[in-house]
Amino acid sequence: MARTHHRRTVLTALSATALLALAACASGSSGNPGGSGSSGGGGDGVITLGFAQVGAESGWRTANTQSIKDTITKENGFDLKFSDAQQKQENQIQAIRSYIAQGVDVIAFSPVVESGWDAVLQEAKQAHIPVILTDRAVDVTDDSLYASFIGSDFVEEGKRVGEWVSENLGTKPINVVQLEGTTGSAPAIDRKKGFEEAIAGNSNIKVIDSQTGNFTRAEGKTVMEGFLQAHDNIDVVFAHNDDMGLGAIEAIEAAGLTPGKDIKIVSIDGVKDGMQALADGKISYIVECNPLLGPDLADMAKKVVAGEAVDKRIVTHDDAFDQEAAKAALPDRKY
Ligand code: AHR
């Protein structure tokens, strides 16, 4: 099977090279690394989009998957092929290779981790299939390997949390523990960086421990239990997502302490469960990370398949909530 695939890739790459040379002579660059230049891929007007999702690790991810399934629909001109990588990069690479072998019109994915994508993205490029990144970035040597990246600014999210902590809790000495997202993922790397930058000038704030909870509620709880055993002086938990913050609440309550009073929690996402905990006073502050990326992905996919020039980076808008803002937003919260 691998050999068949390799031959197919080589043939596609050869014919693609010839086509590219012709296209370049005729019209110059389209600004699109892999676009076929045809609208609607297979000629029937339907765009086949292969989406390789991270997994189902959090409420955020569930909302993100729903948004994609709600917009990449037959009625909207798409045939969606969807796979769940269960938070494993090798599964995602396998899914992308399968989409390449099937000859989809466009591939979209939210990378589990930042690095290790050059080879498979080269294969997509050689097969002339454009790639759109949603939610998370990749660290590649050549950014022509993807057409566009749609998602939040994670450094900014971490920075906003850090600024709030510094202004509202860092007026006296405080000890912070950090529940990091998946090791090597863009949101874990960037949120940590943004937070550190924001608190750097405040000598009252000390980060006394930091470990990954892999963006899940269960692992957030387990790591928090370990923090509570190792330290009796925790004032604040910075959780890289709501689910780990919710796991931390369970651990704090099980230890006979009161979240929001004895230990304050700040987090990122703004999913309904997190917002409810914020409204209830168990979480103190949440910076939103908008998961509703389906509509932007649909627009972008149509453009890249049509060979239109597109923006390399689309930064989505995120709000931030304290307790009162959460109470006001909850009744209309979509996710
Ligand atoms: O990449 C976005 C992050 O991934 C969300 O903050 C988190 O909940 C998810 O698992």
Describe the 3D structure.
This protein has 335 residues and is an alpha/beta fold. The chain folds into two domains: 16-152 and 290-317, Response regulator (Rossmann fold, 3-Layer(aba) Sandwich); 154-289, Rossmann fold (3-Layer(aba) Sandwich). 43% of the residues lie in helices and 18% in strands. It contains eleven helices and twelve strands. The chain has helices spanning 2-27, 59-71, 89-102, 118-126, 154-168, 186-199, 217-230, 242-254, 272-279, 294-305, 323-329, and strands spanning 47-53, 78-84, 106-109, 131-134, 148-151, 174-180, 205-212, 236-239, 264-269, 285-288, 313-315, 320-321. The strands form two sheets. The chain has a six-stranded parallel beta sheet, sandwiched between helices. Strands 7-6-8-9-10-12 form a six-stranded mixed beta sheet, with helices on both faces. Helix 2 links the parallel strand 1 and strand 2 (78-84). The chain is elongated and about 65 Å long. The relative contact order is 0.15. The structure holds alpha-L-arabinofuranose. Alpha-L-arabinofuranose binds at residues 57-58, 60-61, 135-136, 187, 215, 241, 243, 268-269, 289.
How do the strands of the widest beta sheet line up side by side? 2-1-3-4-5-11
Order of helices and strands: HEHEHEHEEHEHEHEHEHEHEEH
CATH topology-level fold name of the largest domain? Rossmann fold
**What fraction of residues sit in β-strands?**
15-25%
What is the CATH-assigned architecture of the largest domain? 3-Layer(aba) Sandwich
Structural class: alpha/beta
Highest-level CATH class of the largest domain: Alpha Beta
**Uncertain regions: pLDDT < 50 for 5+ in a row?**
1-39
Report the biggest beta sheet as strand number plus sense, adding barrel if it closes: 6 strands, parallel
Mean pLDDT: 90
What's the N-to-C terminus distance?
Answer: 41 Å
Number of strands: 12
Work out the count of structural domains: 2
Instruction: Determine the number of helices (DSSP H or I, runs of at least 4 residues).
Output: 11
Q: CATH H level of the largest domain: which superfamily?
A: Response regulator
